[in-house]
């Protein structure tokens, strides 16, 4: 009897996920709305644009580009920013969010998340997450200012080594 009970419990655990309802796109939209996902996507796109602008300014300064080169770089940056804003727009991201949430969560879980984010604590979390995201991005940018020169040095060393190896093979 115990063995049968164990088998039934085990089978129930295996079958339960298969029987769980896939969340509706409407409920996921509600969750994304109460969590401010759209605003975060806009903020992410704006931050990516700012990072691109900062990189371009550094390139102009470090490489001492002439007026024509600066104009070409700014044109490239403008086109790149347009691509970023298009690809990171809410309209482009939303279908991926819906699909992802449908694959990961059940309808019951989505309902529970919606209920949480409608509580004072959930609303507080939603309100403060953009600031957390902004500060996280700033920390990453700060770390990148340390990492990029090291990567550039390693690349230069690798290129130098390849050139030396190539020159040695010629002789």
Layout of strands and helices, then pairs:
Elements: H1 2-19, H2 25-34, H3 37-63, H4 67-87, H5 90-104, H6 107-117, H7 120-170
Could you provide a short overview of the structure?
The protein is mainly alpha-helical and 171 residues long. 89% of the residues lie in helices and 0% in strands.
Protein traits:
single chain; about 170 residues; mainly alpha
What does this structure look like?
The protein is mainly α and 171 residues long. The chain has seven helices and no strands. α2 runs parallel beside α6, α3 runs antiparallel to α4 and α3 runs parallel beside α7.
**Averaged pLDDT, please?**
86
What is the assembly state of the chains in this entry? single chain
Q: Poorly predicted ranges (pLDDT <50, ≥5 residues)?
A: none
Calculate the terminal CA-CA distance, rounded to whole Å.
Answer: 83 Å
Structural class: mainly alpha
User: How would a crystallographer describe the biggest sheet?
Assistant: none
How many H/I helical runs?
Answer: 7
What's the overall geometry?
elongated
Instruction: Give the C-alpha Rg.
Output: 25 Å
Order of helices and strands: HHHHHHH
The beta-strand count equals 0
Q: In what range is the share of β-strand residues?
A: under 5%
| Helix amount | over 70%
């Amino acid at each position: 009897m115990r063995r049968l009970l164990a088998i039934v419990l085990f089978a129930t655990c295996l079958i339960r996920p298969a029987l769980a309802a896939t969340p509706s796109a409407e409920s996921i939209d509600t969750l994304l709305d109460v969590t401010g996902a759209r605003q975060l996507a806009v903020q992410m796109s704006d931050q990516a644009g700012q990072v691109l602008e900062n990189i371009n300014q550094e390139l102009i300064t470090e490489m001492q580009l002439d007026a024509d080169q600066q104009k070409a770089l700014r044109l490239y940056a403008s086109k790149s920013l347009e691509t970023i804003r298009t690809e990171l727009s809410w309209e482009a991201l939303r279908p991926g969010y819906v699909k992802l949430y449908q694959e990961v969560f059940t309808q019951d879980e989505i309902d529970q998340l919606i209920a949480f984010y409608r509580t004072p604590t959930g609303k507080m979390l939603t309100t403060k997450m953009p600031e957390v995201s902004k500060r996280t991005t700033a920390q990453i940018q700060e770390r990148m200012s340390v990492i990029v020169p090291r990567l550039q040095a390693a690349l230069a060393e690798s290129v130098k080594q390849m050139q030396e190896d190539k020159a040695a093979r010629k002789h």
